[in-house]
Amino acid sequence: MSELNEALALKVDARLGGSVRRRPALARELAYDTDAGSLLEVCRTLRDAPELAFEMLMDLAGADYLHYGREEWQTTDATRSGFSRGRIAEGGAPDPNAPGRFAVVYQLLSISHNQRLRLAVRCEDSAEPVVDSVVDVWASANWFEREAFDLFGILFRGHPDLRRLLTDYGFIGHPFRKDFPLIGNVEVQYDPDRQRVVYQPVSITPRVLVPKVIRHDHRYEPALKDPQVPR
Fold first, then answer.
1. E-assigned strand segments in 111-185
2. Phi/psi at 146 (nearest 5 deg)?
3. What share of the chain is helix, strand, coil (3-state, %, to 5)?
4. How many whole angstroms separate alpha carbon 27 and alpha carbon 6?
5. Which of 211, 113, 1 is nearest to 9 (CA)?
6. Cα–Cα distance measured from residue 105 to residue 86, given in angstroms and rounded to the nearest whole number
7. Phi/psi of residue 21, each to 5°?
8. What is the per-residue DSSP string for 86-104?
9. In Å, how far from its chain's centre is CA 66?
10. What H or E segment, with its residue span, contains residue 187?
């Protein structure tokens, strides 16, 4: 961690040591977890404390941990096994109602100190994920929270106008959830007889998509390269 981030971490811990927990992050990033009950207090402190001064919410996004740690594809360890890289995840099907499935992640910026911080909060109830709205803390959260509600089904308590933002009227389900079918539930087409757009069951055949894997290639070993011939 850089010296600037380490100094910031000391300030955050001094102000919010009992309300936040450090979470893993890249070397030049600083990230914390907090509980749903402490969210608003933590956010107001991050904004109002002069040594922190995170005046701007840059982004807010939902996250679904339903399949976390249950990768279905071998990647770097499949170098010698050709294209048969599928594997069966251990432990059976995950429980969609297990606690902590959904989370909300906040990307904060301090304009005064030119520093960034990531804050995450888990929804306690996965069957009906709810957290407090931070619109009264950062006005920019308004559309971000609507987007997370639309795509993940996360509810934001106290939001002034929580409606879908990106999907069509009458859309059923939340397309960024891990258990939402990749082919969707319905398809749309124009009916010339009715002279309007109609919905109908999906006619696409489900298939598994094989991801691209970057493999180590011995052709690029430095020892095997031809020496540079001077011209």
1. 115-122, 130-132, 155-157
2. -65, -40
3. 20, 25, 55
4. 10
5. 1
6. 30
7. -130, 135
8. B-PPTTSS--TTSTT-EEE
9. 12
10. strand 186-191
Give me the domains of the chain, ranges plus CATH numbers. Answer: 3-83+94-167 (3.30.460.80)
Task: Output the CA torsion 191→195→199→204 (10° steps).
Answer: 20
What are the per-10-residue average pLDDT scores of the chain (231 residues)? 87 93 89 96 97 97 89 57 53 83 97 96 95 97 97 97 89 91 82 88 70 61 65 54
pTM equals: 0.78
Structural tokens at position 220: 């690029």
Place of tokens 């251990």: 90
- The token pair that represents 25 in the structure block: 């992050």
Q: Which residue has the tokens 């050709």?
A: 82
Residue type, 177: R
- Look at strands 155-157 and 130-132 and give their pairing: parallel
